[in-house]
């Protein structure tokens, strides 16, 4: 596999980053994950807009213009012959002698990108739905910034695995669901309304979430952007997650409680189909 590392396209075994890179030492870095369908990038401009916001909230240097980043994404997809999968981008505050204070503004950003080949459209998760457990949300309070501080979500996924589930929905101190470890959480009420937590500092502003809400409202679904408890989710007609890597994937059990009939719900399946069709049509 060819990766992009600080200005060069290299075989992955030859790519190196500095021991002093602040992404490595302080998790002083942000990232994006863009899905690829038929060799084209899905929701690219949305991901770049969120990257700009993450960079600016942390006063991180820009790793390049949107056009330059698009060119790197395309070059990597092409060099790796990627048809379906993901492009991961990570931008760091660069390398500087270890110090809590930020290095001078002129320090060049660190930038790495790599591709991952992965089936996204036809998956067992989409076919069967996923089981989740609920866990306390122990992340920092600025979850709207897409930083690489992923240790807690990683631990929560391990906890889910140990419990025989595939993922975890995190619950804030207020007893309300924030989001999944790497996805936004949604439920469908008995009267068919789509309920998902409103945007704030508590959750990542999902690019797939935004696209799915737009498509759902075009479909005539009523949308309630509000928080919900694990109990409300367990009693809901349907539950599902959204993310660049899962698109729309049904949740069929929460803490061992079956959701609806315990199989992927009709709304989630329709939204998945519509999202994929739209993604294929608008990918660049
Ligand atoms: N929430 C969290 C915590 C995430 O890590 C992600 C994606 O990585 C999402 C939500 C979904 O965001 P997107 O739809 O932009 O992939």
From TrEMBL:
InterPro entries: Aminotrans_IV (IPR001544), Aminotransferase-like (IPR036038), BCAT-like_C (IPR043132), BCAT-like_N (IPR043131), Class-IV_PLP-Dep_Aminotrnsfr (IPR050571). It catalyses: L-valine + 2-oxoglutarate = 3-methyl-2-oxobutanoate + L-glutamate; L-isoleucine + 2-oxoglutarate = (S)-3-methyl-2-oxopentanoate + L-glutamate; L-leucine + 2-oxoglutarate = 4-methyl-2-oxopentanoate + L-glutamate. The keyword Amino-acid biosynthesis applies. Its cofactor is pyridoxal 5'-phosphate. One of its GO terms (cellular component) is cytosol. Pfam families: Aminotran_4 (PF01063). It is an enzyme of class 2 (transferase). Belongs to the class-IV pyridoxal-phosphate-dependent aminotransferase family. Acts on leucine, isoleucine and valine. This is Probable branched-chain-amino-acid aminotransferase.
């Amino acid at each position: 596999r060819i990766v992009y590392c600080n200005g060069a396209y290299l075989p992955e075994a030859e790519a190196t980053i500095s021991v002093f890179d602040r992404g490595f030492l302080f998790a002083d870095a942000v990232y994006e994950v863009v899905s690829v369908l038929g060799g084209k990038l899905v929701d690219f401009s949305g991901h770049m807009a969120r990257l700009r916001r993450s960079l600016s909230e942390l006063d991180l240097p820009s790793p390049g213009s949107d056009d330059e980043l698009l060119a790197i994404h395309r070059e990597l997809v092409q060099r790796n012959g990627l048809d379906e999968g993901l492009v991961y981008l990570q931008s760091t505050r660069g390398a500087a002698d270890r110090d809590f204070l930020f290095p001078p503004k002129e320090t060049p950003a660190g930038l790495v990108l790599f591709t991952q080949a992965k089936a996204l459209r036809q998956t067992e998760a989409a076919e069967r739905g996923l089981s989740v457990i609920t866990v306390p949300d122990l992340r920092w309070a600025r979850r709207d910034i897409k930083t690489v501080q992923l240790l807690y979500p990683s631990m929560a996924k391990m906890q889910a695995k140990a419990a025989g589930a595939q993922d975890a929905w995190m619950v804030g101190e207020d007893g309300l669901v924030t989001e999944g470890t790497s996805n936004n959480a949604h439920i469908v009420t008995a009267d068919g309304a789509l309920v998902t937590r409103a945007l704030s500092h508590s959750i990542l502003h999902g690019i797939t979430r935004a696209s799915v809400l737009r498509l759902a409202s075009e479909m005539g679904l009523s949308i309630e952007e509000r928080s919900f408890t694990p109990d409300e989710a367990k009693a809901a007609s349907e539950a599902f997650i959204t993310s660049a890597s899962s698109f729309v994937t049904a949740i069929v059990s929460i803490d061992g409680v079956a959701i609806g009939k315990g199989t992927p719900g009709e709304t989630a399946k329709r939204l998945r189909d519509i999202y994929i069709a739209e993604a294929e049509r608008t990918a660049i």
